[in-house]
Amino acid sequence: MSSRSNAFALLATLALAWSLLMPATATAAGPVADGFGLVDPTTGIWYLRDAGGDTTSFFYGNPGDRPFMGDWDCDGIDTPGLYRQSDGYVYLRNSNTQGIADIQFYFGNPGDVPLAGDFDGDGCDTVSLYRPSNQTVYVIDRLGSGDAGLGAADRSFVFGDPGEVPFVGDFDGNGVDDVAFQEPATGRVSVRLTQTTGPAEMTFWYGNPGDTLFAGDFDGDGADAAIAFRSWERTFYPQTGPDVTYGSLWMLPIAGRFGPLPGGDAAPSGGRTALEVGDTGPAVAALQHMLTEAGFFRGSIDAAYGPRVRDAVMAFHKVIGTTRSGSWEASDWKALTNLTLPSLPARSGEPNRIEVDLTRQVLYLFQGGEVTAIMPVSSGNGELFDTPSGLGRAVTPRGDYTFQRYIDGWRISYLGGLYRPWYFVGGYAIHGSTSVPAYPASHGCIRIPLWEADWLAGQAYVGMPVHIWG
Ligand SMILES: [Ca+2]
Ligand SMILES: [Ca+2]
Ligand SMILES: [Ca+2]
Ligand SMILES: [Ca+2]
Fold it and tell me: What is the pTM of this model?
């Protein structure tokens, strides 16, 4: 009896010692939480961050491909996938290591958005699609192979609104992935829990405008929750779990159950990138956010570098006195982060006013004593031009004025169209124009972009002081 008892105690001691020797890895029984990481679309380098904060990085794919992770061989470990939106090619890999695709095939049309997930609950992920042009999700429960086309989807349903961004997660924890849509401007997330056309069955708000939302099971309870990557803060905000600062401004986030990783690689550097009209993605959202904070941008943070971003960048370049390209240079990130405005005249009796610096070609709106908006302007070019009463010179009058008159629409004069003009002296106005180049180009008026004229209409008023100098 006693010997048996001693033997049991010895076994128990050995078992305890063995368990202490064993590393606590994902192979242990119990919940396994997802990890997250980033893919640098400019280099094709993947950075997987494990639960301990260690990084494993490898090269996979071509710059520009859309990255995601999934369990393609049903072994419980998620590995990389890429979707090339230009031709619908899918490139899947079955290990978290550098190498070429193990599986490749094509599915969908140019512009389709990949939705990697397990939509039939069989434990295997496949690559379904969202087609923004008709707001339709095309679900397929198998993978292709051998460079061949995959054929028709198994089922489809209409969900999501134009401008919304889809992502995938098992939000109700039933083992079948669900499609969610993020409304970027508000952070509203709409989830459809069944794969049929119908309204959202789950709605919540998460993140800030410009965040990239995706999903994962970061607490290991079997249900996925949202996680926001806020690129301008280089921080991941999971719904469940602590915030993690990791990464860089323009990389694309991914999540998955990575399995054991070697670790020991360098984390993403957080370096900088140049941007131009037509670019999209987290770096553009970061730029829009930073330009908004600095008073240069008043558009929606939609992660797209369009004309409004170009104009905001133009105003920024004018303020800092660099080349007025309208394109974002890699060195501009630091300049914007460290921006100090040029010294502006102090006018303590005029908390609300406009200052126009003709040298820099920018307009500053003061409200409550603070600069709240900075816009690019184009003023008089100094040349002679014909008027109904003889030659005139295209000079913008310098001086101290107040707005005398406002027209809430287009005013067509012999010199062209003035949109929403605010007249400050004679026929001279600050007005919207379809052409606001980087240099003085007007006949004497002060041109601002049309959308800035729309915005200014809600801020300026007749009697507001205007000071023109430089
Ligand atoms: Ca796998
Ligand atoms: Ca499946
Ligand atoms: Ca589900
Ligand atoms: Ca969870």
Answer: 0.70
